[in-house]
Structure formats: C-alpha cells, structure tokens
Amino acid sequence: MEKKITYIEEVKSNKKIHNWYPGRRECTSERILLNPYIGCEVECFFCYALGYPGNFQKFRKEKKIYIYKNFVENLKEQIDKLNIVFCGYLSPVTEPFQEVEKIYCLSERTIKLFVEKNIPIEFITKSVIPESIIELIKMQKHSFGQVSILTPNEDIRKVLMKKGATTSELFENIRNLAKNGIFAVCRIDPIIPFITDNKKELEIVIKRAIDNGAKHIVASIMDIPVLIKSDIMNYIKKKFGNEIWQKIETLYIERIGNYLHANINYRREIFTFLREVCDKLNITFALCMEYEIKNGKVIGLNKEFMTSFNCEGIDIPVYFRKNDKFYPFTCKGNCLNCKKGNCGIPELAQGKKNENFDGWNYYDYLRWNKIIEKEKLL
Ligand code: SF4
Ligand code: SF4
C-alpha cells in the first residue's frame, strides 16, 4: 500500500539566505531562494527535487514533509541586517501553496514579510493561488507570479501529478494575476516527450495563457535525474504504455552532470516551434535550464532562443534599504549579462566569482552592505 504523507515539524532552522547555486546557471537575475517546506504534495512523477539529497530522499522514500516552523522569523532576522536585497523566489524545490501551507502559512507569511519591506517576491505554482496572496503581491510593484501549465488536457494533467489545481483553475490563476495588474508568466515546464509535446496542444496552452493575460512564456523539456531514472521510467511504462516508454528510453541519450536530456535535435525542434508561435502571438519567450554539449563544453541554449531581456520576462532591479524599507536601484537586474555593475558591486555583474564560489549567500550580502555604505549608494 502507498505510504501516506506526514508532516515533520523541524522547529529550528538557522538556514542562511542563499542565491542561485553555481554551475550551469542560465537565470539572468539574482534571486533569494526561499524553501520553507522540503517535500511536495503535488507529487509530479517527474519532480527533479526527488533526486536531491538529505530530507528530499526522506520525502521520496518515507513521504515526510519537513516544515521549517521558524522559517519567517529566521529570514526576518537576516533581512533586518541587510542594506541590499534581490527579489525572493518561492520556491525552487516545492509548491508554495500545497496543502501543508493551509496549516503553517509559511509561504504567505514570507510574502507578507517581503511586501511589507517593499522587497519584490515571485512564486511558481501548480495550485490555486489564494486570494490573500494576490492581495499582498499586488502591493509590491516588481512582484509577480508564474503558473505552470503543462497541457490543456485535464485527463493527462491528472496522470502527471497527484494533486494541484485543475487545468481551468490554472488558467484562472493567470487571469486573476493579470486582472490585478500583476505580471503573469505561463510556464510549460517541463514538456514531456510523446506525452505533452503535441504541437497543436502546446499552441493551445500559449493561446489560452495569452487570452487570460499572460505576458511571457517559459519552457523546458523534461530532464531525468539519473538517481531516480528507474522511478520515472517505471511510472511512464505503467501509465503510458510500453511504446512511449521505449521511445523515451531511446530519446534520452545525452547526459550532462547527473541528468539525462532528450536528444538535442528533438529539443531544438520544439524550442524553435515554441519561439515561432510566441513571436507570431507577440509574447516573449525563454527557456529554463536548457543546455547542449558543443566541442566538449556545456552551453546554455537561452542565448539562442530567449526573446525577452531577462529570462522570466520581467526586469527587476536590485533594491537598496532606506530606513525600514527597500527601494529599487536604476538597473534592469540582468546581472548575468551586466557589463558594468553600476550598482557598486562589480562582482555581481556576469556572476563573477572565484573557484571556491558556492553561490552568493548571507555573508556576501553582509560584505556588500559595507561596499554600498562606503560608496554612499544608500
Ligand atoms: S509542484 Fe514542483 S516541487 Fe512539487 S512535485 Fe511538482 S515539480 Fe516537484
Ligand atoms: S547593476 Fe548590474 S550587476 Fe548590479 S544589480 Fe544591476 S544588473 Fe546586477
């Protein structure tokens, strides 16, 4: 019998804030990564987080969701010491509005903290966005929402994940964001070969997203973490049959790090199609974490396919403190491609780093405090 999900309250967390981890980064803007929960009740069969170590494996094997009960207090304590901040991102590895949120409200309280301090925050969701979140997000001018819609076909969506909002609710999410003046992104992320890659259906997702007010499209093709390949492939065989299983086995021939990727020609064809549809429909487009190996080097594909300035379609500057709140600097927040670093912190531009670099964290922020105080940028 399948195990039931249980909640484990990790009463104390002293996790320090962290931006993107180094390595194959394509995200143009810096983000403060926010993960109040480890484990996700949406349970997408392809979820990459199931391949991560530590408590992620406990979730995978024992169905335990870890809750950082003092997440917001710990975060606030750190933010109160900073004079410079980037947009928060809720959450790279779990669904922020999953069931557990109804009990602990950590996502909502995190958003409230950011909005009260006038710090931008974004979320990615496959659930219904609560009204209270819309009311908060619309108060902060650079905050926005991303809704993942993998297929227009509700029968297929239900096989891809155990929970999450219905297809109509997902499009309604976009409508709700847009009608409240909030920048809305539709993520077709990931596209699953031979299951959700039908071109007519992909075009329907884009059209419906635009009709509901989306301003930007992000796409990727499913990667398979090597650690959980057998789980993923067994699920595909069981739910979609031998033929599709075999086609996927044959397609995933490219290994980059710990992930298997679909053949580059297949991926290029889909991305070219999507970009053309987006161009035709006058909406910007970008990829998420898509790479190819060229002459032995791993190269990001976004340079070739992205039609927006920043990969999430919205330009969010770094923010500086003034008294109790934060205010935007005059830049477009495209650190990865920024030439000068006019913010006063040149090491942020183009993600400059030394070889021991593990991604910007709380202690880098404290260091930057001193730089911007000295440069009198506050
Ligand atoms: S919603 Fe995201 S984090 Fe949750 S199971 Fe699906 S892919 Fe994983
Ligand atoms: S000025 Fe450049 S490096 Fe500095 S925050 Fe803005 S985009 Fe990033």
What does this protein structure show overall?
With 378 residues, the chain is an alpha/beta fold. The chain has 13 helices and 18 strands. The protein has helices at residues 55-62, 71-79, 100-104, 106-116, 131-137, 154-160, 167-179, 199-211, 229-240, 242-251, 264-280, 302-305, 362-374; strands at residues 6-10, 32-34, 37-38, 64-68, 84-85, 88-90, 121-125, 144-148, 183-191, 216-221, 224-225, 254-256, 259-261, 284-287, 291-294, 297-300, 319-322, 325-328. A seven-stranded parallel β-sheet has the order 2-6-7-8-9-10-14. A three-stranded mixed β-sheet has the order 1-4-3. It is globular and about 60 Å long. It binds iron/sulfur cluster (2 copies). The site of one iron/sulfur cluster has 11 residues, from loops.
